[in-house]
Amino acid sequence: MTLTMFTLNAFYGLALAMNMFIIASGLNLIFGVLRIINFAHGMFYMFGAYVTFTVTKSWGAPFFVGVLASAASLAVIALVIERLMLKHLYGKEHLMQLLFTFAIVLLMSDAAKMIWGTDQYSVGYPPGLGGAVNLGFVVLPQYQLFLCVVGPLIAIVMWLLVDRTRWGRIVRAATQDREMLAALGVNVPMVYAAVFTIGSALAGVGGALAAPRVALVPGMDATIINECFIIVIIGGLGNLWGSFLGALAFGLVVQFGTVLAPNWQDVLPYLLMLVVLIIRPWGLLGRPETN
Amino acid sequence: MPERRYLIASAVVVLLLALLPLGGSRYAVDVATEVLIYVLFALSLNVLIGFTGNVSFGHAAYFAIGGYACAILLTTYGWPLLFALPAAVVLAGMVAAVVGYFCVRLTQIYFAMLTLAFAMLVWGIAFKWKEVTGGDDGFTGIKLPAMLAHHTSYFYFTLAVVAAGIAALWVICHSAFGLTLIAVRENSVRTGFIGVDTRRMRWAAFTVAGTFGGLAGALFGMYHRGMYIENAYWTESAQVLIMVLLGGIYSFVGPIIGAAVLYLLQVFTNQYTTYWPTVLGLILLVIVLALPDGLIGLVARVRAYRKAWQRT
After folding, report:
1. Cα(B95)–Cα(A130) distance, rounded to whole angstroms?
2. Cα dist. B296→A240, B38, B244, B299 in Å?
3. Most buried of the four, A120, A143, A208, B12, by CB within 10 Å?
């Protein structure tokens, strides 16, 4: 593999990693605070991509309006789901929560078929990001470069939000001791609703940003949800930088795997997770659960 | 021994099923065969979920290994069924033992994700090892002994094997071993304190679940005359998981009812509408929000109401 090929692949791997990180970080946030394994997260991603398609192609709005519209619509969907149903399940068994999110997947997949049909769609690169940057020995596409900037930006914003603000302190407290926090006068249900909304909106943003890269088809949610789980698990559940690291490992393994071992790319992420879990059972940056 | 009324009830169910082919409907026999296979599959998974409290996201792996192994031994190597079927079941159990060795070191979601990872590895092998498994075309044209070639005789064969499998699982689950598993589920730390090697118990449960899952898979492959990589995919694992949860995990018969109800519902719904996912989604919502103990829990609750009503 020449230097040019190596750089190009590493770069594509990074771009994929950052796109995946944006989606997975939402899943990770929701798990970290609510302790809920949200299977519907992949569906939220898919809706994000489809909403971007409708807003940019059918209504002719600029790409970034599409991204905002995706974030907003997923926030609304998530808030409705949380307030109407999910809030009744917090104290219940994990299996029930899991079944609930799976039910949401089923209902939303049929809803998507009713709204958008089963055709394949695509969203073009936004103007100004469709070109390429020439570094002399390699030419890098602008959109992937853009993803490599947005990913770390979102990571830093989330880190500041959770680690450096009063609201973040409350969120972290909610993961530790919900009852004590409520006794101190914090409206815990509102914290939960906000976390679920923000996490789901991140899936919408991730889907919107993925829309120019991938084909929009029914079923695009299924692989993404597994891949997000892999990322979150290998990083360590509930750990933001763990997810970042997990996404990097995932992106690079998938990209180089596609080149070096073609046709095995579907299995490689699982192999990666298998190796990580056998060596570090709680993920790269995770700590054993104490309960 | 089970209570007499349960024994009698089981005998009646088996007898009624045995009379089914006399009705003359090929369709009913086919549906019943498939229901029986899924019943065994769901029940095998519940050894792990209901009895040890470990949720597996990758149970389809053993189903597929049993199915593929039986198919390949019968067809490629021409083994007689009498050897091929047990060999396939043992192989599924052995793979489950190896995978389980790694999985039981973890708990909760980490456990579930590791089972999923191994299952996807099995799927990858079935997909890529084209010379042996047929790859994504599936392994088709399974040779069955002439005795079982007719759908009625295969139904009786399935009924006998599934009934024997359920009986074996019943004995296992109600033995000292099964009760120890419940203790592990209820309080793993305390069970460890009284001298039980909880990890080894969970390992054994994993192996038992994989073995019986393999048996169900072998029956499935022979019934369909083929195994396909979808049978190893995670969606298959999800489906059997839903069957178990739908029926209720804390009773032995729960998964049997869950598997039968879900499969029949799917068959009937698909005759009227293509929106099976919506129907299933709504059913799940009702279960989760209104019937957290599954269908078996519903039966228990109705009974409790009736008793309370009779007393007044």
Report:
1. 49
2. 40, 18, 11, 5
3. A208
Tokens at residue A192, please? 């939960």
Write phi, then psi, for A186 (nearest 5 degrees): -90, 140
> Among residues 79-118 of chain A, which lie with CB inside 8 Å of chain B?
85, 88-89, 92-100, 102-107, 109-110
Mind listing the pLDDT tens digit for each residue in B21-79? 888 788 999 999 999 999 999 999 999 998 998 889 999 999 999 999 999 999 999 89
Instruction: Name the 3-class secondary structure at A216.
Output: strand
The set of residues, in sequence order, having a beta carbon less than 8 Å from that of A234 and lying 6+ positions away, is: A242, A245, A246, A249, A250, A272, A273, A276, A277, A283, A284
C-alpha neighbours within 13 Å on the C-beta side of residue A68: 5
Nearest by CB to A266, which of B124, B249, B282? B124
- Condensed to tens digits (0 to 9), the pLDDT of residues A201-230 reads 999 999 999 999 999 998 888 889 989 989
Q: Among residues B84, B69, B120, which one has the least CA distance to residue B99?
A: B120
Report the amino acid identity of residue A160. Answer: L
Q: What is the residue type of A113?
A: K
Judged by average pLDDT, the poorest of A275-279, B228-232, B284-288 is B284-288
Sequence spans of domains, chain B:
25-311
Residue B158 has pLDDT above 80, yes or no: yes
Asked if A251 and A13 touch (Cβ cutoff 8 Å), the reply is yes
What pLDDT was estimated at residue A9? 92
Q: In chain A, where are the structural domains located? A: 14-218
Q: In degrees, to the nearest 5, what angle opens at C-alpha B131 toward C-alphas B129 and B134?
A: 75
- B158 min Cα distance to partner chain A (Å): 30
Nearest to B144 by CA among B40, B34, B224: B224
Are B292 and A93 within 8 A, CB to CB?
A: yes
B window 54-73, beta carbon within 8 A of A: 55
Q: Nearest-CA residue of chain B relative to A88?
A: B289
Residue A226 CB partners (closer than 8 Å, separation 6+): A42, A269, B116, B120, B234
CA distance, residue A142 to nearest chain B CA (Å): 34
Residues in B touching A270 (Cβ below 8 Å):
116-117, 120-121, 124
**For chain B, percent helix, then strand, then coil, each to nearest 5?**
80, 0, 15
Q: Hey, is the C-beta of B265 within 8 angstroms of any chain A C-beta?
A: no
Residue among B237, B243, B251, B256 nearest B287 (CA): B243
Neighbours of B103 (CB within 10 A): 27
CATH architecture classification, B25-311: Orthogonal Bundle (1.10)
In this predicted model, what pLDDT tens digit does every residue of A135-189 receive, in sequence order? 888 888 999 999 999 999 999 999 999 999 999 999 999 888 888 999 999 999 9
A172/A162 Cα distance (integer angstroms): 7
Phi and psi at residue B197, in whole multiples of 5°? Answer: -80, 90
Distance CA A96, CA A98 (A): 5
Closest CA to A102 of A114, A89, A91: A89
Q: What local confidence, expressed as pLDDT, does residue B166 receive?
A: 95
ipTM score of the complex? 0.83
Which residue out of B57, B104, B110, B125 would a mutagenesis test of the A interface target, given it has the greatest number of A Cβ atoms within 10 Å? B110
| Residue B202, amino acid | R
